[in-house]
Specification:
469 residues; alpha/beta; Carbamate kinase; VC0802-like; 2 domains; 8-stranded mixed β-sheet; 6-stranded antiparallel β-sheet; globular; binds aspartic acid; binds magnesium ion
Length: 469
Amino acid sequence: MTIVQKFGGTSVGSAERIAGVAQLAVEAAGRGDRTVIVTSAMGGVTSLLVDAARRASHGNWSFDERPALRARHLEAAQALFGNDRVLVELVRDRVDRGLDRVDSLCFGLSLVHELTPRIMDAISGTGEMLAAPLVAAAIASRGISSEAIHATELIVTDDQFGDAEPLFDATRAKAEARLGPMLDGGVIPVVTGFIGATADGVMTTLGRGGSDYSATILGATLDADEVWIWTDVDGVMTANPADVPSARTMRAISYSEASELAYYGAKVLHHKTIIPVQSAGIPVRILNTMNPTGEGTRITPEGHPSPTGVKAITSIRNVSLVSVSGRGMQGIPGIAARAFSAIAAERASVLMISQASSENNICVVVRSEDEVRVVRALRNALEFDIMKSHIDDVTSDDSIAVIAAVGDRMAGTPGIAAKVFGALGEEGVNVIAISQGSSERNISLVVPETDASRAVRVIHDAFSLGEKS
Ligand code: ASP
Ligand code: MG
C-alpha cells in the first residue's frame, strides 16, 4: 500500500512527539507500506516566523527568535539521536541554513519596509524546512532509510503567494520522478508540508494550515491508497467541545461533509484538503498521535449518512455581516453583480450570502479582517446608486457569528429547518440572516456572537448528536 502520512505541528512539537512519529514510520516499514511523510513546522514556529517578518518590515531586522528556534530544534536532535554525531551535524547544518535564510530575508525587509506576500511565503515556509531534517534523522536513527525533501522540488503551484494553488500535471511529473525511486528503494521521504514553488522555482505557500493540503496533493499525484492526517484530536467532532461538552468524534464522514465542516470552522482540516483526492476516491483518515490506536474519522466518498440528516454543527467567529440595503434596489438589475465584483476585487472571500425576494437587502458574511476594505469597496462601487437613493447605505456588524448545520442526508429530508429554527426559538436565540444552498447539505445562519455557543448547543441537542448513532 502507498500511504501518505501527514503530521501536524503538535505531532512534531517536541523530541518525545517526534519519537512517536518515527515509531509510526518504523511500523509502516514493517508492514511493507510505501510511506511518504509530510511534516508541518514544529508547533508555533510558523507564527513566530510570521511575527519576525512583520517586525522586520517595520525596520526591526534583528530576528530575535533565532536563538530560541535554533535551540528548540537542536535540543530535540540531541534528545532523539544525540549519540549519532553524523545525524546531529546534518540537522544542525540544515537548521542553520534555514535560519540564515530567514535572517537575510528579514534584513532585506527592514531596508525596503514592504512585506509582500511573496517574501512572507519565503519566510513563513521555512519552519517546515527546519522540521523535515529532524524527522527524517529520527527515522534514520531507527535503522530505516529516510530523506528530507523540500516540497519546492515536488509541488508546482501558481503564483498566488500566500494561498497558492497546485498545478496537478506538473506536480505529478515531479513527484513521481523524485519520490517514485525512493519509495521503490524502501526509503521514507519526509516532505515539508505547506510549501511549493512556481514553475520558475519561486517558493510559495498553500495558506496557513496548508500541510493537510500538501498531503492530499501528494496522495493524489502518487495514486496513494490512503492519506492519513495525524493531529492532536481524535478526529472530526459533531461540534466544538468548547461549545458542546457532549460532542463526540464521528467515525465516518463523506467528502462533501468534510469540506463543509472544514470551511465552516471545524479547524481539523485545511479547507481545500479534500479537493485533490475527491475524483480518485482516495480515503483520508484523521488520526490522533496522542492516541495512535484510536479509530479516528474516516473520510470517504459516501461517509456514513446520519438517519436524522444533520451530522455536525459548527460555528465561525471573527466574521462580519455586511449589508447593502435600500428600498430602491427592487428590480434594478446589476447591483448584486457590481457588489460581488467589488468584493472579489478586494480578494475577500464571502462565507455566506443572503437576499430575500423583496430585494430590499443583500447581505454577505466576510472575515472581520476584510470588513473595512469590503465596506469601502462597496461604497465606491455603488456610489452612483447611493447618490440616486437606490441604496440607503452599506453597513456592517462584527458582533455576529455564523452557525452551520451540516450533513449529506439533509438533502431531500423535510423538517430539518423547522427543527433547527424551532430549537433556537425555544431558546430565545434571535436569527439575523439565513442561507441554504441548493445542495441542501448545509443550513447556515447568522446569530449574535454572544449567543453562538448556546445556539450550537441547542441545535446539537435537538438532533441528539451527542448520542452514538
Ligand atoms: N506550519 C503551517 C502553519 O502553521 C502549515 C501547517 O501547519 O499546516 O500554518
Ligand atoms: Mg492543521
